[in-house]
Amino acid sequence: NILTVQSGYGKTERDHPGHQQPDCAKTVAIMMIQSWHSSFRSSALAVAAMAIATTGTPNAAFAYDNGLGLTPPMGWNSWNKFHCDGLNETLVLDMADALIESGLHDAGYTYINLDDCWQKSRNKDGTIQEDLDKFPSTIPALVDNIHDKGLLFGLYSDAGYRTCALRPGSLGYEVQDATTYASWDVDYLKYDNCYADPLTAKSRYKAMHDALNSTDRPIFFSMCEWGWQDPATWAREYANSWRTTGDIKPTWESWTMILDQNDQWHEYAGPGGWNDPDMLEAGNGELLDSLVQARSHFTLWCLIKAPLLLGNDLRAMSDEILEIISNREVIAWNQDKLGHQGHKVATYFADGTRASTKQQFTTQRQLRTQQQHQTASNVKGDASKSSLSSLSSSNPNAKWTDDKDGPLQVWTGKLSEDRIALVLFNRSPTAANITAEWNDIGLDASTSANVRCVWWHKDLGSFSASFTAEVESLGVAAFELSPVQYQ
Fold this sequence. Notes:
Blueprint: E1 2-6, E2 28-32, H1 41-55, E3 74-77, H2 79-82, H3 89-101, E4 111-113, E5 119-122, E6 128-130, H4 139-148, E7 152-158, H5 174-183, E8 188-192, H6 201-213, E9 220-223, E10 241-243, H7 252-263, E11 274-276, H8 286-289, H9 291-303, E12 308-310, H10 319-325, H11 328-334, E13 343-348, E14 354-355, E15 360-364, H12 370-378, E16 397-401, E17 408-414, E18 420-426, E19 432-437, E20 448-453, E21 458-464, E22 466-471, E23 476-483
Parallel strand pairs: 3-4, 3-12, 4-7, 7-8, 8-9, 9-10, 10-11
Antiparallel strand pairs: 1-2, 2-22, 5-6, 13-14, 13-17, 15-16, 17-18, 18-23, 19-22, 20-21, 20-23
Helix pairs in contact: 5-6, 7-9, 9-10, 9-11
């Protein structure tokens, strides 16, 4: 009892001549019949409590209470494409206009976030000063301009003496900087982890959390601790999101390794607090040249409830990239009110042998030596001291070893209204069939479920027991399942 449905993701012109619209799997799908900015601080706690009661998320009592982040944030950030040298006022306004004109704002993207290098110095009173060569109209004027466009505005700082690009950090200036950001009507703060003693991360992030909470303005607090001290296990009390990994790069090796690192913390995410595997790279590097990779990356970031912060040049993106990052059916998974982070539930080797579902990590996040700790303790605010360069000025790394994890993978996540998101991910060098067994995705084998392809935007019918699709190399096939309710 096998039903074969003609479908297929179809490569685009960048992958081979002859353009096809993205469909549901590379060539065939085989269906196995048998087998928004809340003002109510209490709302985040209420929704988080509901999600935790439903999904069993740990740290239920420790949700950040600023009323923000009930769903992962969506927007654009300057770093991935433009880094430090490319950041300026004209660029930011161009990106804001492009976000609106492209329809991305209508699709849910709201934040325009400046990363490192907007700031230059502090005045004699210690107040942070913008780089007027880059932002001649001043940051407050830019914030007003962004707000006038109906968007939200984010800034960057660092929980150390200096930022990663050697601009002034906020360590020791938390209250003053939080007060300044609030007076400028900033909506979002990304808070990095360079040039500070790694052993004091919790106290440094708590200091900014307390400072932000002491203002009258809700500001989304994004911790960028890089996963050094497993922030998923404690950061929910302090932040709306927390980085679980080092910095992403626009390569297959980078984003897939980060995907695996982040997966181990899936139980800790939920409304009000999200695991952050770093920003999107769709439209950059390899994920510009390979639309298959771009689609896979974006689909999985939506499934795992990652913050959707675009990192590409919105003024110059192709129609194909725009189509990928504006797919509202996939975005709806990310913004689903249940807030359940999707995760990997089964993997297979090329011969069909079932593999372990648990990644094996060689962790390289050892904290600095006692000597380095003492060096940091002796620094009294002179961030120019060369001794700081040996501290946390670069991101940690973790090596994923796939000796027990197969390349043919089944990822799934719960959605509201008893729906299920299903992603079949092929990490092998050739096309392959991947099967999702109902008992792996939370369904009884006898349950009948309606299946819809969220890239083809087509209902495929009702199926039970299992579901198999042929998926192209490095690609995904993505479906939404709605169990049939019988009366």
